[in-house]
Structures are given as structure tokens and as C-alpha cells.
Design brief:
By secondary structure, the chain is of the alpha+beta class. The protein is built from five helices and six strands, in the order αααααββββββ.
Length: 227
Amino acid sequence: MKKYLSILFVLSLTFNGFIFAQEEQEEGNEISTVEALLNLVKQGKTQEQSENAKREARFMANKNKQAEILAAEKRELARQERIADQLEAEYKKNEEILRVKEEAYQKELGSLVELFGHLQSSAGEAAVQFSGSLTSPQFGLERVNFLNDLTSKMSETTELPTIREIEGLWYELQREMVASGQVVSFDTTVVDVDGESSTCKVTRVGLFNAVCDGKYLEYVSATGQFA
């Protein structure tokens, strides 16, 4: 009986020791797991703080860059505004100079304005008359172009006719006047009733008649030819 009790006592001690050892191991594992979790949390927090710091740094860098761009744009705008102000001031200055010169020009022109008005009127009327005159095939249309250009020039108050141009106007008026009392013959193009063109010796009687081969001709100003 004593031997049986001894065996039970030994088994009890062994079992209790095993249980105690297992509990210690589980407790150690639990502590180890908590520490690992704390380390993971700590690492995650540290990493998150690092990422936040990087994002904040990028944000501040971008913010500073945008601020620099904005400041540069403002400086450029101010520069352009200064240039615009300078140009406007220069424009007003030149405008005033032009006004003063225009007044001086008109004052110096004085009585010549009336004279040039008569010249302009004479040149315009002569251009219209010559364009339909029987002398046009003989003298050509260049004189009409000259008179039209002279009329346009004298209609502008910024440019005066030259002495040569005034003499040219006088010459064309005199030439037409002399031709009005002449009977002359010259070769020129004549268009017949069929629309065919041919060269004919035309006899012009003053400014009233033109004859070719015994037939009276009509001057067509639109074509610049006799028909």
C-alpha cells in the first residue's frame, strides 16, 4: 500500500511540474507576442510619421514653387504695365507734336489752299473730258491717269503737288485746246460692226468728228478705240 501511495505522489509531482512548465511557456509566449505587437505598432507609427513628413515636405516645396511662380507673374505683369504706360505717354506726346505741326502747316499753307482747290478741280474736270475726247487715241490714256493721280494727291492735305505736276496740268490743258482747232490724220485701231479690229488712217477734225475711209467714227471710251 505504501508503495502504491509513493507512486501516486511521484506521478502527482511530475504532472504538476509539467503543468507549471507549460503555463510558464505559454506566459512567455504571450509576453513575446505582445512585445512583437508593440514593436509592429511602433514601426508602423514611425513609418507613418515618416510618410507624413515626406508628404508635408512635398506640399511645402510645391507651395513655395507656386508662390515663386505667382511672384514672377506679378513682376512680369508690373513690367508690362510700366511698358504700356510708357507707350501711352509717348503716343500722347507724339499726338500733341503732330497736332502742333498740323496747325503750323495749315497756317503756312494759307492762301495756297484756295489755289490748290482750283488746281484739283481743273485736273478732275480735265480727266473726265479727256477720257471721252476724240484726241485720246492720238495722245493716249496716260494723260488721264496722270490727271487722276494729281487729283487724288491734291485731295490730301499732307502732300503738295510739285512744280512739274502743275506744269504738266497746264501742258495737257493747252494741248487739248490746240488740238480742238486742228485737222490731223494718224493711224490707229478701229473696230468694225462685226467686232473685228483693223488699223486705219483716221482723220480727226478738231474735237467734233473723226473719219476713216469716208465713214464717221465714234470714240468708245470704255475700250479706248474708234468704232
